[in-house]
Amino acid sequence: MKNIFHKIGAALILSSAFFFTGCEPEFENDITVSRGELNLSKYVAVGNSLTAGFQDNGLYLEGQVYSYPNILANQFSFAGGGAFVQPYFSEAQSNGSGYIRLAGISATGSPTLAPVTTNLAVRTDAQPLPGGPRLTKFADAAKVQNWGVPGISVLSSAYNEYGNVNPYFERLLTDAEVTAKTTYIQKVVATQPTFFSLWLGNNDVLTYATSGGVAVASNPFSNMTPVAQFQAIYQQLAGGLVQGGKAKGIVMNIPDVTSVPFFTTVTQASVRRSTGNDQLVIYIRDEAAPNGARPIADGDYILLTTQANLGRQDDVTLPSGTVKIPHGFHPANPLNDNEVLDKVEVAEIKTRTSELNAIIEQTAKSANLAFFDVHAYFNNIKSGFSMSGINYSPAFITGNLFSLDGVHLTPRGYAIIANEMITRINAHYKATIPTIDVTQFRAVLIP
């Protein structure tokens, strides 16, 4: 049985602390393997952070190894799939951009998170880009087949200065390509795959959502992408990958932002439990409300990143003088707009997501590509499900699906998504590519 780790070398595997089982992943079911209508000799993955294997608020070697494209490529190899080149960080810089780990659980049951800052691939010899510090260049970028770029959107994929903005994209370009203002679309279309996966578009709404519905004037990609622009760029990208019908692929759409724990974990009820105060009221800023604040209501979502600020003692100036008031627990010191996604913003995001998803689905149908409705999938599992005796849900940490940033998946979550993709690929292209045993992949690491 081929090993999912074979592509990065035995020396690295044997020395890696994250080799999680000590055995090779096996087929989930015993089947006769067939590629059906597919030519899998060159698989290329196109997408954002989810495609790159981003997890725990960072991109690092373990996440790259357990990315869903690497899992797919491993399974494709049993049906004639060729080599798959990922832009791995080196073992010496295995922690990549840095990430967060679970350090423990507090007495009130809240997770304690700590940053990982050793063995980074962050460059100190060059000025940071607007999107963050530069990262060590991948030496063999011309052969890259996993084009997952954290932070990229459909809108920015056509931006010719993006190599001077996003460090994850810049590390995959030569200096000459950066100077020539090579776009993401140009790079991925030039790969000429025989099969591709396309999961791009999330950040065309998610960037705005994770900022609490606040767009920054200096960042042209911080608002939701207009529908007409999205359609023109997305169809250009998909058309370039299809190559007039020469290549086949699978297309995924945009999940509902309210289906991920970044938006659903921190609630008034959970804060009441953690503080032991069942009368506590959380207030959010609302310029339309009396005094500019109102109690949080159904349909409002507190961001996961806001949790650390709740109850912080702030100096607030009142007519009677300056006093200490806990942040979010009093109308005089409500949560700010960038700490909450209110129900009006949620409705706007849901509408735009629906509009963009309609374009994605129609594009897939027009090109006769396999389609995975991720939006429906994540909404269908909101209440949880069981697989092989293990329970899964979108719950933060305990749900086994989402990593510590509340947006990106755990290795097991990525394996589950890979299996769902294989199921749809098999159905559409009359193939019998084997799925993988997801229990051999870890969920959140508990200290």
Automatic annotation (TrEMBL):
<dbReference type="InterPro" id="IPR036514">
    <property type="entry name" value="SGNH_hydro_sf"/>
</dbReference>
<dbReference type="GO" id="GO:0016788">
    <property type="term" value="F:hydrolase activity, acting on ester bonds"/>
</dbReference>
<dbReference type="InterPro" id="IPR001087">
    <property type="entry name" value="GDSL"/>
</dbReference>
<dbReference type="Pfam" id="PF00657">
    <property type="entry name" value="Lipase_GDSL"/>
</dbReference>
<protein>
    <submittedName>
        <fullName>G-D-S-L family lipolytic protein</fullName>
    </submittedName>
</protein>
